[in-house]
Every structure is written in C-alpha cells, then in structure tokens.
Amino acid sequence: MVPQTAKRERSxxxxxxxxxxxxxxxxxxxxxxxxxxVERTLRRILGRELHVDLADLIHDCFVQxxxxxxxxxxxxxxxxxxxxxxxxxxxxxIRARRxxxxxxxxxxxxxxDVPAGEADPEVRDAYMRTYAVLDRLGADDRIxxxxxxxxxxxxxxxxTACSVSLSTIKRRLARAEQRFATIATRDPVLRxxxxxxxxxxx
Amino acid sequence: xxxxxERLANLGQAVAEVNAPDHDAIxxxxxxxxxxxxxxxxxxxxFVVVPAFAIAAAVIALxxxxxxxxxxxxxxxxGDEHGERGQWIAAxxxxxxxxxxxxxxxxxxxxxxxxxxxxxxxSTIDLEQGALHxxxxxxxxxxxxxxxxxxxxxxxxxxxxxxxxxxxxxxxxEMLEGKVQITGPLxxxxxxxxxxxxxxxxxxxxxxxxxxxxxxxxAAPTAPVVxxxxxxxxxxxxxxxxxxxxxxxxxxxxxxDPHPATKVDKWREYLAARAYSSAIxxxxxxxxxxxxxxxxxAELYALSDAARYAGRLARARDALIALRARFNEQGKTxxxxxxIAADEKxxxxxxxxxxxxxxxxxxxxxxxxxxxxxxxxYKPRDAARAGKLAxxxxxAYPDGSYAALARTLVEK
Lengths: 202, 412
Fold this sequence. Notes:
The complex is a heterodimer of chains A (about 200) and B (about 400). Chain A has about 200 residues and is mostly helical. Chain A is built from nine helices and no strands.
C-alpha cells in the first residue's frame, strides 16, 4: 500500500517524526534521501581502498543515525547530522586500518583502487598520489583536508561535520594543508599541481 | 583565497572527478538496511511482552539474548538471497557468498559447500567437493575455518584459492595474500603457508608438498619446496632458498614444480588443480590469444571463472568473448560479461550486456537477476526507464530479490 503522502517530498521534520515513530516508510525515505551523501562522504575520505567494504560502512552510518536520533534537536540539521556520523565512521575505519597495519599478519592494500573511468590518465595518477599522501596524514587532518578541498565544504560546514569549533577546524585545516603540501612537493606529479603549470591552470 | 589554496582546490576538484560513485555499494547497503528493519521490528514486539508476563520474562530474556548474539554473529548472502547457517550450496554456476564483515567467497561451478557455523568472529566453511576462491577480511577478532576433505585451513584474513577432489583425494591451495595454517594428515604439526606458495596434498599417494608459485597477484616468492618427513614437521619457514633467478618467472616455476609439464599444457594443469592465478599467468606466458583460440568451450568457461577469481577481469572478458565468437555461446556469456562490466564500474557496458542477455534469453534462469541489476544501473541515470523495468520486474517476480528496490521506484 502506498502512503498517500508518499507522492510528495516530505520535510525533514516529517521524516524525523516518522523515524521516531518507527514508520517503515521513514526508514526507506531516510536511505533514499541520504545514501548518496553518506556514500560520497565515506568514499572521498577513504578513497577506494581495497578491502574496505563501503556498503558495510554506509549501512553502519544509517544504523548509527537511527540510534542517535533522540539527540537530534533540529530536524533541519538532519543532513549535517548524518554527514557528521559518516565522518565519524570514516574516522574509525581509518584508525582500524592503521591499527591493523601494525600487525604483520596481513596488511590490507594501501594503494587506492583507482576506478576505471573516463578520466584523463594524468588526473588518475594525481588521484592515486593524492591518496598516497593522505595516507601519511593523521586521520583528523586527512578528513579536514578532504572535506575542504575534495568535497568543497565551507569552514562552518566543515566544523559541524567534524564536530569541533570553527577555530579548531581552522587550525586543523591549516596544519593538514601545510603537511600535505610538504609531502606533495616531494612528488614530481603533485609538485606540478602545487607549484603551478598547465594542470592547475586548466 | 591564496594561491596554494587555489591549487589545492584544483587538485581536490580533479580528485573528486575521478572518484565516481559506487552504486553497487549503495545497492548492497540498501539490502542490508531493509533486512535490519525486519529485525528491529521483531525486537520491539519483545519489549512489549516482557513486562507483562513475569514467568515468560526469563524465557524471553533468554530469547532476546540469543537473538542479540545472533545479530552480532556474521550473516551472509548467496548471490542476492539471504543465506542460512548449515545450508548446503551446490553450485551449478559460480556463486558468490558475501558475508556481513566484508569477506566473500566465490564458489566455483560444480562445487558443493556449506556455511557450517558462524559467530561474530568468522565462519566455518565446509568444502565437500570442488573449488572456491576466498577473500577473508582481517579483523583483530576474526577467526575462520575452511574444512575440506581431511584438511582444515585456519584463517584470520587472507586471499586464497582452495579445492578438494574427493575422487582423487587431492587437496590444493594457492595463497594469493596473507597466511593460513593447515592441519590434517601427512603433516605432524600445523603448516603455515604464505602468499606466493601453494599446497598440493594427495592423501591416497601420501604426498604433501608446498610449492612456490609466481603469480601476478602474489609477492615474489622465495621458491621453497617442502616435503615433510616423519622426523621433520613441515612448516613454510623450513625452506631452502632458491637458486633460480628471481627475475625469471619461468625458471622459478620450472625449478619448483616437481612434475614439470610441457609449457603448452601448463595452464591446463593449473586449471585442473584450481590454481587460478597460476593458470592465467601460465596462459599468458603461452600467449593468451592463442590459448583462447584453441581452448574447448568448457575450458573457456573455466578460464573465464579462473580469471575472475584471480581478479583478472580483462582476461575473463577475453575468454567469454571467445566463447561467443567461436562457439556462439549466447545468453549466459552476455550475463557474465555484464557482471564483469559492473565489477569494473562500467555502467554503460553492464547495461548493454544485461540488456543483451534479456534479448538472447528473455525467460532464462538469470533473467530475474539481469532485470534487477538493470534497475540498479538505470536508477541513478534514467529514472523513467528504471521505473518501467521495476514494473516489469514486480509483475514477474513479486517476491524477488530486487522487489523492495523495484517498489520504491514504482511507488514514487
């Protein structure tokens, strides 16, 4: 049976009310509306690492969203709330992978799996090298860098996503950029992007 | 914005363009989300009953505890269907078992397996006959067992191919990544086998050998040959360094293979032993075009499977294209090509091949899955087309694996 109101876009308030009431349509709508945001946030922070089960992490985000919904005060803050949960899940995934890397038993592949696409091979090369540099940053710095420069968040959004104050995120971002630039300039391909040349001026 | 920030933004934008959405992951997460909804509803009902019936409370508490344990336990799917603990799976076609911790097992054609046990740490898999390719995700707590014939393979996180031929009492294992421990007859202590090594055990002939193989996926091996004696427990660490040059893969393979075959037949030998990566590498050394030009239809299917298990999707595609060109094998080959394209995130290619399958075998055994995959592929690209497919799907398969997804499109 199709709910009468399913044909129009429900507001976040209706969605949150439906979730709190345990309505099945609300669960489906939550996923439909925010799956792309969650997937993109996770994918961009983590890159396409082999052995990361992205589907599992996406699912985790929605489970945590539902579990923590009682702490959400403003329904309109739902998108930011979900993104901050995705950031937290990505953070835990990075930390878990780094903990595993201390075990000699099995180190998951550190090289990101570059998606086969229509992108210019030079850009794909830059993609791989960028994530190789990001692997050398701390998890907090990596997240701040990616959300700012790959996802394109404004500083206020970035602070909300990372659940820190504006001044903290500014300091963190400055540190991440400095560290990234220092490492990247040792890489011949990324140096070209950072020091100018045909690529970055395109 | 200063110049460094501008340049970082340009780089970030380029990175964002390369990093395309993973629609398969979203679809997979959607299925898990739908399943977890059913479990949540079940728990709410329990919370109403418990306070009302004091005597029943203990029983229900026990039930809830057990349910909670079950929920912590891994779950798995067989293709797109929910898998049950203890269920035997006889694979007429290659089947993918996907576990909730991210591990997965590809069961080869004609193999028979069972997920005998599962808990939060891992699973026990019985391989009664045939071959499988396993990719077990390592977690701190993970513990998996593969029981095949008289041998048990203990795993924490790794990638390997294993096979058991009950008629010839032959066990083979090829390590692609990580390490495993093997226990069973002909060895006195558990044997550790690492990436780049393979095991051949023949119980009838009382033979247990660890060979070094060079595969495209494995790290450079040390080329050890271990043949344990009754005085010497076998371990992979008790190896002697190879005299072969590490730069010549043929030399490594020939020196370490105690039963050298002609170079022409090597890929067939590896294929028969279910050493998938080695089979593809050997076929490439022979000349892959020549191999697919001379292989039989059954061998081409086997090569395609082997290439897919070894992660060599381009070779899998070559074998399937050869099947279509040389043997006019339609239908299933189109479906498999669609799946490969989808694995490669080539949505347009996947759509073309799944469509082709439905044209070639409209009522075929894979029609439901092909239609479901098309719905997933079309959904973010062409909502109208996805909606029409969803209607068609629901009319034919109202309880199918993709019915929930199809309903979300029809109800909009």
